[in-house]
Amino acid sequence: MKMYRAILFDLDNTLLDYDASEREAMQQTIRQHGLMEREGFTWDLFWTSFAPINWTYWIERTERKLHISEVLDYSFRDTLLQLGHDGGLSAALASTYWELFCSSCHFMDGTTELLPRLHGNYTLGIISNGIGEAQRKRLATGGISHYFPHLFISDEVGIGKPDKLIFDKAVEALGVQRPEILFVGDSLKDDYEGALAAGIDFCFYNPHRKPTLDGVSPHYTIHELAELSRIITREE
Fold first, then answer.
1. Beta carbons of 176 and 201 less than 8 angstroms apart
2. What is the rounded CA–CA span in Å between residue 20 and residue 62?
3. Which of 47, 143, 175, 216 is the most buried (most CB within 10 A)?
4. Cβ atoms within 10 Å, residue 72
5. Of 84, 102, 120, which residue sits at a domain end?
6. Is 122 part of a structural domain of the chain?
7. How far apart are CA 123 and CA 181, in angstroms?
8. DSSP strand pairing (220-222 vs 181-185)
9. Which string of b and e fits 181-195 if b means at least 16 CB within 10 Å?
10. Pairwise CA distance, residues 144 & 112, whole Å
11. pLDDT tens, residue by residue, 61-111
């Protein structure tokens, strides 16, 4: 049998449902600030505009040395201006959204059943491209922080996936050999490529059954987190 001693997870859309938390926090934010009462303002129109603007600021944040508060502030500002509204409310919107998002925790199906089974039998950790404040608060809100003595979050470490260095830091901290570590994630770019470069077995969590490209060969593929129990004890 392939015997793993440590299991590392991606966080967003692997253990925690990032999309659900983002949507919930955003809808609460625009309601609290009365945007839905403005003439012609709709959720669909807002989100269609906000999402690509926010993504652009997010991927440029490192190069431009933007704090998350600035990413959100500028995203709200540009969205409001694009929709023909005053952008002066952007900082307040950013503050409200961030507070709501950091205190939100929605689990992916199977998370709360899987972690107690793994805890005590494997050393568990997380490697996440995200903001430490948000990731740690969301884990605490969900009551699962105690499962993860090892957290490697890109803005805290200063390196993000798929850079193998963030995986190397995890290996060093775990104190086990690379063949004894399994990494579970939902991204074939950030998670698969990073684990491959670091020489760590990778389990592709693919609940939506997305096709993989030629040449992409995860060690394992699962469509439900419950399947992981079979993977970690399977015969090779």
1. no
2. 25
3. 47
4. 24
5. 102
6. yes
7. 9
8. unpaired
9. bbbbbbbbebbbbbb
10. 8
11. 989 999 999 999 999 999 999 999 999 999 999 999 999 999 999 999 999
Q: How far apart are CA 58 and CA 68, in angstroms?
A: 8
Query: What CATH number is given to the structural domain containing 34?
Result: 1.10.150.240
Residue with tokens 């002066």: 88
pLDDT in tens, 33-49: 999 999 889 999 999 99
What is the number of residues in the chain? Answer: 236
Encoded tokens for 56: 């652009």
Distance CA 185, CA 165 (A): 17
Could you give the residue ranges of the DSSP H alpha helices within 103-220?
111-118, 132-141, 154-157, 164-174, 194-198
Q: Report how far residue 146's alpha carbon sits from residue 104's, in angstroms, rounded to the nearest whole number.
A: 17
* Listed residue (228, 223, 225, 172) closest to 200, CA to CA: 172
Range of the domain at 150: 6-16+106-231
**229: which residues sit within 8 A by CB, 6+ positions away?**
114, 117
| Interacting residues of 94 by C-beta distance below 8 A, sequence separation 6+ | 69, 72, 73, 75, 76
Amino acid at 87: G
Q: Can you state the angle between helices 68-82 and 43-64, rounded to 10 degrees? A: 140
Sign of CA dihedral 34, 37, 39, 40: positive
What's the whole-model pTM score? 0.93
Total number of domains constituting the chain: 2
CA gap 232, 203 in Å, rounded? 10
Q: Are 186 and 17 in contact (CB under 8 A)?
A: no
Q: Any idea which residue has 């060690």 for tokens?
A: 219
